[in-house]
TrEMBL record:
GO terms for cellular component: plasma membrane. This is Bestrophin. Residues 1-29 are annotated as: Disordered. The keyword Cell membrane applies. It is found in: Cell membrane. InterPro entries: YneE/VCCN1/2-like (IPR044669). The lineage of its organism: Eukaryota, Viridiplantae, Chlorophyta, core chlorophytes, Trebouxiophyceae. GO terms for molecular function: chloride channel activity. Pfam families: Bestrophin_2. It comes from the Eukaryota. Its main location: membrane. Signal peptide: none annotated. It is a multi-pass membrane protein.
Length: 365
């Protein structure tokens, strides 16, 4: 985009700035901005963030430069070692597996004389070793695939935040000098987009964060829609079209590109949310995982007796935990401890847009 095109003056045919009507309009605009600033302040201060607490805790500890032990340089090593929340907890699979191990070990010890000399039990170590390598590779691939989806989701939300901020910046810089009310509308709907996107990805219609940001009838209409993010994008497009009489074509296209980018990013998030790892892969992995874990107590009981239960439980927790991690983070837009901190991301976006509105309000005063 040529720099001289961006620097062209705005269309001077905008609304007049003198006379009683203009002053009344400015008063309404001032009231609108102050109302919006108050609402954003409440959003920034209030509420409990849900989802992504593990990510936020790690970031806080890393940025402080100190760990929970008080020694600099160790970062979050001690915290991650001792943390309870955020760990994979496949409780039901673990209870079933431990009960199975207890049953096998007790039956072999008390009901099978000379179980330690049974050649077939000793020979089981060969298929277990053979299956183990391929099983570990499958688990690693499963976890890495889920992490790739988690990280892609984070990058997409960074794009949503950046484009929303860009719309607010252009509304303040280019639209507000000619029509502050229209600039306010663009900023309001720029705030609404990530909130609506978050509600869609989390599978609920709660738009309470938008109270005092949008009129009640607009919120009610959005709540009833199935494709809410597209409706917000359409509203932004109409506002930009309305503002285009004051803008150069280059600026209008830039704002429209931001809206298109917002919609593309949310659609990519929906792809992650609605498309899981192929079922055939999950079924095959879990079948061989259960088979491999089921053979372990037969191998360890001859040399460890009752201690085999503890050893099998530790190994089972490691492998079932890895599988549980893959399940938890493959759709990272919810409210789990290890999901993306979407509430924090939207709160930071509110703060950024609030600064734009503060600047506008200072200019008006």
């Amino acid at each position: 985009m040529p720099a001289d095109e961006l620097q062209q003056p705005l269309n001077p045919a905008g609304p007049a700035t003198n006379g009683p009507q203009a002053h009344a309009r400015m008063d309404r605009s001032s009231s609108t901005f102050r109302t919006l600033i108050t609402a954003l302040s409440k959003l920034r201060k209030g509420g409990h963030y849900k989802g992504g607490e593990g990510v936020l805790n790690i970031v806080r500890i890393r940025e402080s430069g100190r760990s929970c032990t008080g020694h600099p340089g160790s970062k979050y090593w001690f915290y991650s070692l001792c943390a309870i929340r955020g760990r994979p907890l496949p409780i039901m699979p673990m209870l079933i597996y431990i009960a199975y191990c207890v049953l096998v070990v007790e039956l072999l010890i008390h009901k099978v004389p000379g179980y330690g000399d049974i050649i077939e039990l000793k020979a089981l170590i060969v298929p277990v070793q053979t299956l183990g390598l391929s099983l570990f590779l499958l688990l690693a691939f499963r976890t890495n695939s889920s992490y790739d989806r988690w990280w892609e989701g984070r990058k997409l939300w960074d794009g949503i935040a950046s484009k929303s901020q860009d719309l607010g910046r252009m509304a303040v810089g280019w639209v507000a000098p000619k029509d502050k009310q229209l600039a306010s509308e663009i900023i309001r709907w720029s705030i609404a987009f990530p909130v609506v996107a978050k509600s869609v990805l989390r599978g609920h219609g709660d738009l309470s964060e938008l109270v005092s940001i949008l009129p009640a009838h607009e919120i009610a209409a959005l709540t009833k829609m199935g494709n809410r993010q597209s409706m917000v994008a359409l509203k932004l497009t109409r506002l930009i079209q309305k503002a285009s009489v004051h803008l150069t074509p280059a600026i209008t296209n830039s704002m429209d590109n931001s809206v298109r980018g917002l919609l593309a990013d949310v659609n990519s998030c929906m792809r992650i949310f609605q498309t899981s790892i192929p079922l055939a892969y999950i079924v095959h992995l879990r079948a061989f995982l259960v088979l491999w874990l089921g053979l372990l107590p037969f191998i360890f009981v001859s040399s460890m007796r009752h201690w085999a239960i503890l050893v099998c439980a530790v190994i089972g927790y490691e492998l079932l935990g890895f599988e549980d991690i893959g399940v938890e983070i493959e759709a990272p837009f919810g409210v789990d401890y290890n999901d993306l901190p979407l509430d924090q991301i939207t709160s930071d976006l509110f703060t950024s847009l609030l600064e734009y509105l503060d600047e506008l309000n200072q200019d008006e005063d």
